[in-house]
Design a protein that fits this description.
This protein has about 300 residues and is mainly α. It is built from 15 helices and two strands.
């Protein structure tokens, strides 16, 4: 039970991270040591699992899909989105709040580069190349200009697939990918607020397909090329620092009476004459300390 409490807390952290454009819940899963178990559990939902369900073999099915673990993780994610993540969203409604929150996650991601990279057993040339490729891909994604909004069903399906794959892939943010694809406002703001099923259903179907298919791919790759895969993901994580650099000019839009951040432009250098810069630097240090603490707690839980 104690171990599943830690799993639940990790789910809380994943849910909070997924709300921030530029931060991936998959990154939190990887640095807290549950990523591989998570993708293996999701991968277990296959034809055999469906057969067990129809035959009433519930206990065997529960064991096959690591049910208690999945419930702990997704309960944490859900509760986080309904509580902690809402706090993050309110903080990000102001430019100063956005900078300070991004600073915290910048420190978190910066230290996690080293903690994740340290799990690679052999930094061979091919693993270093994989890291550089991951870094380049993440930076290019961060610099891509957002596309135009598109409500076509086929495009919404693709948005669901890509966003979900990004959410579980360390270093790539699902919400940021939706910004790049031009449908962040359409999906995450308009459709969610209005419960527009014409938008939400295609996105949800795409997300489900992406989750099932991509988890199988990741599981297969991890089993056969673990060091290479972690090196590539370390590059993704390092490249995501470009996206969550705290000192950027936010792009805001007004939704009713609220102003929300929907993207970023104009990477800036910090103004050391500004008191908020000192607060931001302190939060970078705090973010790094949190990762160090999470790693220690994860080892105790194991």
């Amino acid at each position: 039970m104690k171990n599943y409490l830690f799993v639940f807390l990790k789910g809380l952290a994943m849910g909070a991270a997924n709300v921030i454009p530029g931060v991936s819940g998959g990154t939190i899963a990887l640095i807290t040591g549950i990523f591989e178990r998570l993708i293996h559990a999701i991968k277990a939902f296959d034809l055999e699992a469906i057969r067990m369900l129809f035959k009433g073999q519930i206990k065997a099915l529960w064991q096959k899909v690591d049910g208690t673990f999945l419930v702990a993780v997704f309960a944490g994610i859900a509760i986080s989105i309904l509580s902690v993540a809402r706090l993050f969203k309110s903080i990000m409604e102001s430019e100063t709040g956005t900078t300070l929150l991004m600073a915290f996650f910048f420190g978190l991601i910066l230290v996690s580069i080293f903690t994740v990279g340290a799990t690679v057993k052999n930094w061979s040339i091919k693993n270093i190349v994989a890291l550089l490729i991951g870094l380049a891909i993440a930076v290019v994604i961060a610099l891509i200009n957002p596309a135009s909004e598109n409500a076509a069903i086929w495009y919404l399906l693709i948005c669901g697939v890509v966003a979900m794959c990004s959410m579980i892939l360390p270093g790539l943010s699902g919400s940021f990918v939706l910004i790049i694809m031009g449908n962040y406002k359409l999906v995450m703001v308009d459709a969610v607020s209005d419960l527009d099923i014409k938008i939400l259903i295609p996105v949800a179907i795409g997300a489900l397909l992406g989750l099932i298919a991509f988890s199988r791919i990741l599981s297969w790759v991890f089993d056969r090329y673990r060091d290479l895969t972690i090196a590539l993901m370390t590059g993704f994580i390092a490249g995501s620092l470009v996206t969550i650099w705290p000192w950027k000019t936010p792009i805001t839009e007004t939704f009713g009476e609220k102003v929300k951040v929907v993207g970023y432009e104009g990477w800036n250098m910090p103004d050391f004459g500004d008191t908020n810069t000192l607060y931001a630097i302190g939060l970078i240090i705090l973010g790094g300390a949190v990762i160090w603490g999470m790693e220690r707690v994860s080892k105790l839980a194991d």
